[in-house]
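thought: fold this chain, then report.
action: predict
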Amino acid sequence: MTKLQPLEPYNLFTFDPVLVRAVAREGAVNSHDDLVSFGERVGSEEVYQWGFDANRFSPELLTHDRFGERIDEIRYHPSYHRLMALSVAAGIHSSHYDGKPGEGPYVARAARMHLVSQIEVGHGCPTSMTGAVLPALREQADLATV
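observation:
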């Protein structure tokens, strides 16, 4: 019987020729080097472990503190926060607003989201909703000031 080898470390971007071609075709050519770096980071053993831990240790709802006071807090494993920080540092939450249509920021952002979602998808919801809310806020200025 053959012993299985770990997948990581590997570059999730450069090992995906379809994604590499799509990014170039759709106008994010200037983001190629950043995507190569991000693909390498996301494919590292460390980030894989973050994804594993974030999924293994489910969020915990704490309804009350130790004194019986209502707190309604959700605690996440530190790996979940590390993935969030990685995604925010990569601009997944907002980089699609960094340029004009046709310049590629939406494409590059979608590529980064695709790469990190292969490791752990749960943190993608709050990350993407952070950027997605901007158009709604633009339509309701009173909410934007709160």
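thought: worth noting. The chain has seven helices and two strands.
final: tokens above.
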